[in-house]
């Protein structure tokens, strides 16, 4: 199949745990708004919906399974999209907290950060003139002295516990070494292809948004795994989102957009919804003669177990 005619998977990360409410009035915070935006994003063309939860009162990130349960089953009922639950949570959550809902749901897919790292947006605090909620300023500024922890033992625990139930992973690689960390677990026999490698560019603490970095990640993954053993995908943080994901598709990869990664649609224009970003990248890709993968096609490409084997009822208990 030629590169121009292959199917491209669009992932949408709906809310995340990094941006705070003051950064965009359109960031979904409540279960109802996350549900609505996720469903609209799926209808716009996202085959994979990547989900975090927030306290409905003030938008603070939360790992509470009860809050996840207020919107995840509804999204699954309303769409055929692949439900992808974070195991990253936020830098302030323990591993046990981050795993609380995935353990109950046993989803088709979970995100998995492939290493411990500095992860910060603290310079953005200097640009903020007001804060909507009292927790936000300390949360953003405090990232300067926070580390996201995912040790080899942590990663192994996630792979074993969730992999036992057929969950596969969006391997989030923020640096070149994260690919080698993944290769280590492949050598250990803990994960098998096809791998879904999400290369992340533009986060302070990880790789910068230089286009050359994408080439290095792509060719290194080719050497480590073989191109036919993995699906390459890219997310670009902030203003780098659309240029980098477009380049990723041209290089034979897949794309991720969403308000978790950028609150903007274009320079100086905030995205009013996740669906707007999905619709924009879909239009760009289709103008370039790429076809957009359906959820069923994404499941086949990634070797997923199917929504019928997800424990939605058990996770409501």
From TrEMBL:
It comes from the Bacteria. Its cofactor is Zn(2+). Pfam families: BKACE (PF05853). Keywords: Metal-binding, Transferase, Zinc. The keyword Transferase applies. InterPro entries: Aldolase_TIM, BKACE. This is Uncharacterized protein (DUF849 family). It comes from Paraburkholderia tropica.
